[in-house]
Design brief:
Blueprint lengths: L5 E6 L2 E2 L6 H19 L3 E9 L3 H10 L3 H18 L6 E4 L3 H16 L3 E11 L4 E3 L18 E10 L5 H10 L4 E2 L1 H12 L5 E2 L1 E3 L6 E2 L2 E6 L1 H6 L1 H5 L6 H7 L4 E5 L3 H15 L7 E4 L2 E3 L2 E2 L10 H8 L1 H11 L6 E3 L1 H31 L13 H22 L3 H22 L1 H6 L3 H21 L7 H9 L10 H4 L24 H17 L1
Parallel strand pairs: 1-3, 1-13, 2-3, 3-4, 8-14, 13-14, 15-17
Antiparallel strand pairs: 5-6, 5-7, 7-9, 10-12, 11-12, 15-16
Helix pairs in contact: 2-3, 4-10, 5-6, 11-12, 13-15, 13-17, 14-15, 14-17, 15-17, 17-18
This protein binds one RNA strand through strand 2, helix 2, helix 6, strand 9 and helix 7.
Length: 532
RNA sequence: GGCGGUGUAGCUCAGUUGGUUAGAGCACUCGGUUCAUACCCGAGUUGUCGGGGGUUCGAAUCCCUCCGCCGCUACCA
C-alpha cells in the first residue's frame, strides 16, 4: 500500500463563530466529490477540514455564551463535524486550531521564519473603531475618517507587532504563479492576485499584543500569533508537520486547497510566502470556488436569507443536494440556490432522465428477458446503436479529463449525454415492437445497451451520490463496492455479464410535486379527459 | 478612482485561431408514442449576439468609444 500515489486535499477551515450555513456544506461537498474521485482513481487520499478558533470574536462569543473559549470552540467543532457526517464528507482529519499539535506546528513555522530573518518587530498603525472593536483600512472609512457602520470618528492606533517580510518574496511568488499556470484557479482569481502582487503588497503583521486566547509567540510571550497566520498553518498541522515527519513527507505539499473566492489573497499570497520563508514546498493548486446566491441575492444575516444545511438535506436528501451542487453550479463561479431550482433540477435530471430510464429499462428486461441481463450481439448493431455504443466507449476519458480539471458539472454531463441518447434509443428501436416481431437479438442488444448506460452512469455519479449509486447497482445486479471498485476497468463498455439478475424495485427518484408541478399535472389530466 | 472581468433566445449559459441559414439545457406551444415516475420522443416560436463607429470580401468573434453589471483594491474569519 505504501507505493500508492498520495493526494492531499483540503477545504478551508471554518470560523468557529457561528453555526454552519449552506455555503459551508457547498465547499465541503465539492471537495468531497474530488476526494472520493481521487480515491476511486487509486490515490491514497488525505482529506482535511477543521475550525479556525483563535480570534477576538470567538472570545467575545464565548463570553456572551458564558463559557470559556475552549468549551465554546469545542461545541462549534462538533457542529461542523456533524455537518460533515450528515453530508457524507469523507474527511480523514479535522483540525481544530486550539489543538496541541497545531500549536506545535505554528510555533515551529514561526521559529523558522524568525530565524531566517523574515519576521521583525515593528509598529502597526491602523484606524480603529471602538464600537466595532476592529481595525479598518483607510479606504473603508468615510471621508472624515469615520467608521462606516457607526459613523463615529475612528482612532489612529499604533501597536507593536511582529511582521512577515512579504516584500522579500513577492518576485519569487510572481514567477512561481507565472511558471505554474494551474497554481491559482480559476483564471479570474489568478488575475486578481497578479494585480495585487504587481501593485506592491505590504508586509503583514503576524501577531497581536495582550491576548490570552491564542498561540503565544515563541520569541515574545506578550504577543500571540495573529489568526490568519495561525489558521493557514492548519494545512500542515493536518499532515503532521512538527509532530509526525514521516506523515508530513508523505502528504506535503498539498495537491489542492479548495477555498472560497473571498479568501484567495490569504491562500495565494500570504500562505505561499509563509511556506517559502519556512523552507517548505508550496501547494500545487489553490482553487477559489464561488459563493451561493439565494434567488440571486447574497446570503447574509441582515437579509435573513441564510439557508440551514441540516434542514435542507432533511427535506431533499443529502445525495440530491450534493448532485444539485455539482450539476447546477459551474465550479468556480457563483451559483444560484433556491428550493425551486432544486426541485426543477431533481425532476428533470434525476426523476425524468436518469430515474425514468432506469425504471423503464429494467422493467423491459423483466418483461422481455426474464429479469436477466440479455446478450449483446455486436454483429447486428444498426447506426443508432453504434452511435450510442461509441459514445459510451468515450465516456471514461471525457469523465476523467473533466474531473481532473475540477469541472464537476461537465463530468456529470458526460453521463447525461448518454442517458439522453438512451432514452432516445428506446423510442427509435421500440423494444416492445421488437418483442412482438420476435426480433430477439435486436431486442436483447438494445436492452443490454440500456443497462450498460445505466451502469456507466452509476459509476460517474458515485463520488457525487455515494448512497444512490449502490441502489442502482442493486437494481442491475452488480456487486460493486466504493472501496474496491476499479473504475478504470469498470468504466469500459461491455462489462455487464449476461445472465445477471436485475430487479426494478421502487423508483429511485419519485417526482417532487410542488404547487407548480401539481398544477401542471392537473392541467394535463383535464386535457387528457377531454380527448377521451 | 485604478485594475480585471462580463453583457448572446423568458432563464442559465456554449460559441475553437473572424467564414455558409447563431447553438445547448430549462421554460413555453403543438404533435407522436406507451416500456416507463403524465414520463419519453419529435417539431416549432422568441434573439437588431448591450449601443454606436471602424478594419475586412466577410465579425458575436479583431480595434475604438459609450452604457450597464460583477469582482478585487490588503489584516473580522
Amino acid at each position: 500500500m505504501s507505493d500508492k500515489k498520495h493526494y492531499f486535499i483540503t477545504t478551508a477551515i471554518d470560523y468557529a463563530n457561528s453555526k454552519p450555513h449552506i455555503g459551508h456544506a457547498y465547499e465541503k461537498v465539492t471537495t468531497d466529490i474530488i476526494a472520493r474521485y481521487k480515491r476511486l482513481k487509486g490515490f491514497d487520499v488525505y482529506f482535511s477540514t477543521g475550525t479556525d478558533e483563535h480570534s477576538l470574536n470567538v472570545m467575545a462569543k464565548a463570553k456572551e455564551t458564558g463559557v470559556d473559549p475552549k468549551t465554546y470552540v469545542d461545541s462549534m467543532a462538533v457542529a461542523f463535524k456533524d455537518l460533515c457526517s450528515q453530508y457524507k464528507i469523507s474527511i480523514t482529519d479535522f483540525v481544530q486550531t486550539s489543538e496541541e499539535r497545531h500549536a506545535k506546528a505554528v510555533s515551529e513555522i514561526f521559529r523558522r521564519s524568525f530565524e531566517s530573518g523574515d519576521i521583525y518587530k515593528g509598529t502597526y498603525e491602523g484606524w480603529y473603531c471602538k464600537s466595532c472593536e476592529a481595525f479598518y483600512a483607510q479606504g473603508e472609512l468615510t471621508e472624515d475618517n469615520c467608521c462606516p457602520t457607526h459613523k463615529t470618528q475612528a482612532d489612529l492606533i499604533k501597536e507593536d507587532n511582529y511582521f512577515l517580510k512579504i516584500t522579500k518574496y513577492t518576485d519569487r511568488l510572481l514567477k512561481h504563479i507565472e511558471d505554474n499556470p494551474d497554481f491559482i484557479q480559476p483564471e479570474t482569481r489568478k488575475n486578481e492576485i497578479l494585480a495585487m502582487l504587481k501593485s506592491g503588497f505590504r508586509d503583514v503583521s503576524v501577531s497581536r499584543p495582550g491576548l490570552n486566547w491564542g498561540i503565544p509567540l515563541p520569541v515574545d510571550h506578550t504577543q500571540t500569533v495573529y489568526v490568519w497566520f495561525d489558521a493557514l498553518i492548519n494545512y500542515i498541522t493536518a499532515v503532521g508537520f512538527a509532530t509526525d515527519e514521516e506523515k508530513f513527507k508523505k502528504y506535503w505539499p498539498a495537491d489542492a486547497h479548495i477555498i472560497g473566492k473571498d479568501i484567495t489573497k490569504f491562500h495565494c499570497i500570504i500562505w505561499p510566502i509563509m511556506l517559502m520563508s519556512a523552507g517548505l514546498a508550496l501547494p500545487k493548486k489553490v482553487f477559489g470556488h464561488g459563493h451561493l446566491l439565494y434567488k440571486g441575492e447574497k446570503m447574509s444575516k441582515t437579509r435573513g436569507n441564510i439557508v440551514d444545511p441540516i434542514n435542507i438535506a432533511n427535506v431533499f436528501g443529502v445525495d440530491v443536494i450534493r448532485y444539485y451542487f455539482a450539476a447546477n453550479i459551474t465550479n468556480g463561479t457563483d451559483g444560484e440556490f433556491s428550493e425551486e431550482s432544486i426541485i426543477l433540477c431533481f425532476n428533470t435530471d434525476l426523476a425524468n432522465d436518469l430515474g425514468n430510464l432506469i425504471n423503464r429499462s429494467i422493467n423491459m428486461v423483466e418483461k422481455y428477458c426474464g429479469a436477466k441481463v440479455p446478450e449483446f450481439f455486436d454483429h447486428i448493431l444498426d447506426e443508432k446503436m453504434k452511435t450510442i455504443v461509441e459514445k459510451a466507449k468515450q465516456v471514461k476519458q471525457v469523465y476523467f479529463d473533466r474531473m481532473d480539471a475540477f469541472n464537476l458539472s461537465g463530468a456529470l454531463d458526460s453521463a447525461w449525454e448518454l442517458i439522453s441518447m438512451a432514452n432516445k434509443l428506446i423510442e427509435d428501436e421500440a423494444p416492445w415492437n421488437l418483442q412482438k416481431n420476435n426480433k430477439v437479438h435486436e431486442l436483447e442488444t438494445v436492452l443490454y445497451i440500456l443497462l450498460e448506460v445505466i451502469r456507466l452512469a452509476s459509476i460517474v455519479i458515485l463520488p457525487v451520490m455515494p448512497d444512490t449509486a449502490p441502489q442502482i447497482w442493486e437494481k442491475i445486479g452488480v456487486n460493486y463496492d466504493e472501496k474496491t471498485i476499479n473504475i478504470d476497468e469498470e468504466l469500459n463498455f461491455g462489462k455487464l455479464i449476461k445472465g445477471g439478475a436485475v430487479s426494478k424495485g421502487n423508483p429511485l427518484f419519485p417526482r417532487i410535486l410542488d404547487e407548480k408541478e401539481a398544477e401542471k399535472l392537473k392541467l394535463m389530466k383535464e386535457k387528457q379527459a377531454k380527448k377521451a
